[in-house]
Amino acid sequence: MTARNQANETRITALMPGKLADILRRAGARHASPEAIQADLDAGAPVNDDGTINLIEYAAWLVGRMADGD
What's the confidence (pLDDT) of residue 4? Predict the structure, then answer.
């Protein structure tokens, strides 16, 4: 299930891991998978209180990890 706004559209600020992986793969991230995203969450990636993921915050977290050499 994906969080939806009043117009019943997917919100990039509230995505389930599977939907986020699908979006990332479509954007060219060949290794994006729900399992990889879950591993990132386990490693400290930001997650909303309801278990969904904000694409913008997640992308910023990934950039920060790359900058740190992870």
Answer: 53
